[in-house]
Amino acid sequence: MNAYSVQKMAKLAGVSVRTLHLYDQMGLLKPSIRTEARYRLYVEKELLRLQQILFYKELDFPLKEIQVILDNPGFDLVEALLSHKESLQAKQYRISMLLETIDKTVNHLKTGTIMLKPEELYEGLAKETAEAYRTEASKKYGNEVVAHSEKALGKLTKEQFESLKAELKENATALFALKNENPISEQTQNLIAKHYEIIRIFWGTSGLSDKQAEAYKGLGQLYVDDERFTFIDGQPQPEYALFLSKAMAYFADNHLK
Amino acid sequence: MNAYSVQKMAKLAGVSVRTLHLYDQMGLLKPSIRTEARYRLYVEKELLRLQQILFYKELDFPLKEIQVILDNPGFDLVEALLSHKESLQAKQYRISMLLETIDKTVNHLKTGTIMLKPEELYEGLAKETAEAYRTEASKKYGNEVVAHSEKALGKLTKEQFESLKAELKENATALFALKNENPISEQTQNLIAKHYEIIRIFWGTSGLSDKQAEAYKGLGQLYVDDERFTFIDGQPQPEYALFLSKAMAYFADNHLK
DNA sequence: GCTTGACTCTTACCTTACGTCATAGACTAT
DNA sequence: ATAGTCTATGACGTAAGGTAAGAGTCAAGC
Questions:
Q1: pLDDT reported for residue A60
Q2: What ipTM was assigned to the predicted interfaces of this complex?
Q3: pTM given for the model
Q4: Chain A within 8 Å of B166 (Cβ-Cβ)?
Q5: Residue A34 in 3-state DSSP?
Q6: Distance CA A72, CA A66 (A)
Q7: Which domain holds residue B28?
Q8: Cβ B81–A106 below 8 Å, yes or no?
């Protein structure tokens, strides 16, 4: 029966000596032998336990849980694995969301590359902003602005477009809940700031540089002028429209140069 | 112009007071006003910066990088985002591997549930172990063992089966590299332990309980008896076969009750 | 004017799973 | 005996805060 020193043990398992010290100290893996000079000596049994530890570590189990698992022979491993699986899936989902956001942002920054088919451009939310903007705003600000917006939208992927729609809808819901508050409250203005960011993507970020404040105020005015844009559950919401236009005008005056 | 206390600021942005203290201390977000009593007062400008910080934090950027990004207006955001994307994708890949491993393990523990179609059972690696075992081992150990093995294999999903094949191949490569070493060295025995685990899945984990050591040694002897099982690049490897059988026999005698 | 309660300040220790010294003792080979 | 390698313990640092301690500040009610 041969025994291994810390270093040999570490090399065998591909971990550091420090790791073995730590495992010893926390009681996760204690060498069965200590020489007179307190040198640690590990035997086969401990090597096998270390392999098991590393297996669970590979699965991202925290060390304390590994200890519980290994020290309770009757532990329900399957349940532990399945619950661990769920947390990993949640992580994976979150990462996929992050990746989407990055893609959107990069595409936004690069002024986009992928083209949407034209017929996919106007649907759902498009009625609320893009088409509204198209039909009405062109009267006031000229066709080049509308053309720019359509071009920008065309550069989004379908997923990005859908996601943007969802964001705007969420934003609108939050704003509607505040319609009886002060339009210049921080809470409202924070939501308006987000609203502006979303709208800006619909518009496309480049161009319009000088006229952004004016254009955004114009969109706010549009909500007041045409009740179609603030229909909720089939009812026009003139107060909400007024609230929005005030909040947007304040934001434009104070944050857009 | 209104200013916010730490608490108000924290609530507005949905972070803790401690977080603001920390950001202040590390210079990431300093309040522009400090009262006589050293109370922190934040203004709009800082609220906007905090929003930006939170945006990048959402993307899992470390705070120090966020600081660099926000303090260097000319920073190449696109590049930073793309490199960040890569690290996220690597994470995602790793998680998907972990999930596969968990699935395999759970299925292993539960003795499997999903059935593979029979015609998918024997292909590629099946030649190296299952079929080998089938054609030869049944002479020595009887048909019930072979039947059990086929049943176990049938309970793996195709993905699991493929993955197992890959693992065994990797294991075999590692073992082949050690063919001139001592069969009972720790290094070899560790690989053999893994080999045994993989083979055991092919055999199915239940049953065979008492005869595992004998059966495993039998498989080792098979490598010596029939050169077909150790063909590598079209050449039989009798020395490798002998090395394997010795290593397996030693493992069986010392670790399988 | 005083107390109470809510708020804020700084300092500092705790968390994970180790890495990286620093100091000192132990072992091996020449 | 001495050099070189190995080991032990202790302590500090990491990322991003959580939690708590002790003390000072502010507005309100009595």
A1: 75
A2: 0.45
A3: 0.44
A4: no
A5: strand
A6: 10
A7: 6-71
A8: yes
Query: Chain B contact for A111, CB < 8 A?
Result: no
Confidence band, pLDDT 50/70/90 cuts, at residue B151: very low
Residues in chain B within 8 Å Cβ distance of A95: 88, 91-92, 95
List the beta bridge partners of residue A40. A34
**For residue A170, what pLDDT band results from cuts at 50, 70 and 90?**
confident
CATH number assigned to the domain comprising residue B32? 1.10.1660.10
Q: What is the pLDDT of residue B104?
A: 61
Judge whether A72 is closer than 8 Å to chain B, CB to CB: no
Residue A82's Cα: distance from chain center in Å?
Answer: 25
User: How many Å does it take to go from CA A65 to C1' C12?
Assistant: 29
Beta strands (DSSP E) in chain B are 33-34, 40-41
Shared domain for A179 and A200, answered yes or no, is yes
pLDDT (tens digit, 9 = 90+) per residue, A142-161?
A: 343 444 444 444 444 444 55
Q: Are residues A172 and A130 in the same domain?
A: yes
Q: Judge whether A250 and A193 are in contact, CB under 8 Å.
A: no
- Residue in chain A lying closest to B188 (CA): A12
Residue B132 placed within a domain: yes
Give CA separation, B35 vs A27, B38, B48, in Å: 51, 5, 21
- Cross-chain Cβ contact A95/B91 below 8 Å: yes
B95 and B144 together in one domain: no
For A195, other C-beta atoms within 10 Å of its C-beta total: 23
**E strand segments, A52-195:** none
How many residues are present in chain A? 257
Nearest protein residue, CA measured to C1' of C25: A37
Give pLDDT, residue B232: 63
Q: Are residues B208 and B234 in the same domain?
A: yes
The structure tokens 């053309």 sit at A147
